[in-house]
Amino acid sequence: MIGISQGIQPIASFNFGAGNYRRVREAYFKATSCGAILAVIAFFCSLSVPIAI
């Protein structure tokens, strides 16, 4: 998640500075989608290996 957010920062800032607001929005939604998908995969992987606390 941190890597995705750090990776999108230069893309968003470059396009924002160039006035390409559509590309900023597109990059934001793609990064958010990737983060959500990775979070769901990590969640189900953690459920598949139950560990007694």
UniProtKB/TrEMBL annotation:
<keyword id="KW-0812">Transmembrane</keyword>
<dbReference type="Pfam" id="PF01554">
    <property type="entry name" value="MatE"/>
</dbReference>
<keyword id="KW-0472">Membrane</keyword>
<protein>
    <submittedName>
        <fullName>Uncharacterized protein</fullName>
    </submittedName>
</protein>
<dbReference type="InterPro" id="IPR002528">
    <property type="entry name" value="MATE_fam"/>
</dbReference>
<keyword id="KW-1133">Transmembrane helix</keyword>
<feature type="transmembrane region" description="Helical">
    <location>
        <begin position="31"/>
        <end position="52"/>
    </location>
</feature>
